[in-house]
Fold this protein.
Amino acid sequence: APRVAKHCEPGRFVIVKMDDLGERIPLTICDYDREAGTITIVVQIVGASTEKMSHLKAGDAFEDFVGPLGCPSELISKDIEQLKKMNIVFIAGTAPVYPQVKWMHEHGVDVDVIVGAKNKELIILEEEMKAVAGNLYITTDDGSYVRKGMGTDVLKDLVAEGKHYDLCVAIGPMIMMKFVCLLTKELGIPTIVSMNPIMVDGTGMCGACRLKVGDEIKFACVDGPEFDGHLVDF
C-alpha cells in the first residue's frame, strides 16, 4: 500500500474490507515502511471477516484498503525538546501504541508503556516494544504472565512508588479507557484516549461514531480518533 505508507503518521488508521459481503473494519496502522511502501496491521480473530483475514497468503488482497484516515497523534506535532522533559505513560495493547512509542524513541523521547492482555497468549510484539519503550510493564488479567491485574493496577502501583507522569495515553477497549480516565482524573494526570472502537464508516458520513467531548459533539473518525479522555462522555 505505497500511497498509505507514504502519507501515514502515528495515530492514524485504515479501513479494510475483505470482500463484497464483509464489514468495514477500522485498524490502527501498527507500523510502516515508506521505502518498501508497506504498512503493518495487527488483527485478532473475533468474527467472520477477521477469520477470513487469517487465511490470507502472500499475494492475496483485500477488496478495499482505505487510508490513512483520522488525525495523527497530537504528540508528533509537539516540540521535541518539550516532549523530552515530560514523563509520559502509555496504557494499551501493543499494536495500537507501538507506532507512537517507536516514533518517540526515534526522536529521543523515552516513555513508559503498560501493556495489558487477558492472558499470555495475547501478548504480542513484546521484544519490539521493549526495544523502543523506556520501561515496559506487562500485566495479564489471569496472571498467566508477569503479573495479575489490569493496566490501572500497574499505574496505581507506579504512582504509589513515587513515579510522576505529566501525560497518559490510553488506547484499548472502551471500558478499559473509561476506567483509566477515572483513575487518572483522580491522580491529576491529563489523559488522551483513542476512540477507534466506535467507528464504522471511517469517513464522517454515517455518524455512528458521534460522541460528546466536553460541550461539543465530535465524530471519532474525522475529528479524532484521539481526544481528551477527561472530557469524553463514556
In short: The mean pLDDT is 90. The first strand starts at residue 13 and ends at 17.
